[in-house]
Amino acid sequence: MIRRLLLGAAVSAILFAVGVAGLGWKPYVVMSESMTPAIHRGDLILVDPNAKSVAQYEIVTYNDPRGPITHRVISQANNGTLMLKGDASPQPEPAAVDRKRVVGPVRLILPHVGWPVMQVRTHPVKIAAGALLLALLIPGRRILGLLLLGALVAAVALVPTTIG
User: Are 61 and 78 in contact (CB under 8 A)?
Assistant: First the structure.
């Protein structure tokens, strides 16, 4: 029963990932609370880099020297620059953002799905030690278990993050 449930969850996750990749959407894990209440720390957002335009009040992810940032468009100038603001912030960003730096609008928010990525990014040694301990405690096929856990931790660590 549990094996079927786990298999179903794994197949669903793979089909979802393939579907999202087919759309060309990019996943990001939000690492701050600057977009609450719309987006929270640990949420997984999917950004559409193929969008031709963004609308006022739409949430977008843009590239910044600090890293990718996800904020809401509060106004657009005729020259193509955007004024952005985090929902939890009282003030907008100090400088306008050129449209060329925008990765795209947020198309889907998956609450709490990015929690494993946050844990791997903020506590990598604890996660690696826990995975190793778990692999050693589970009987049988230890090498295969170690390889699978290592691959899972590495895959999770590769998901990009954004300052929300």
Answer: no
What is the mean pLDDT of the segment spanning 112-132? 81
In this prediction, residue 32 carries a pLDDT of 93
Contact 26, 62 (CB under 8 A): no
Helix (H) or strand (E) holding 150: helix 142-157
**Long-range Cβ pairs for the range 4-11 (8 Å, 24+):** none
CB 142 within 8 A of CB 96: no
Rg of the chain's alpha carbons, rounded to an integer?
A: 19
More confident residue, 147 or 98: 98
Alpha carbons 78 and 116: distance in angstroms, whole number: 41
First to last CA, the chain: 39
User: Is residue 76, in this structure, part of any structural domain at all?
Assistant: yes
In a domain, 16, yes or no: no
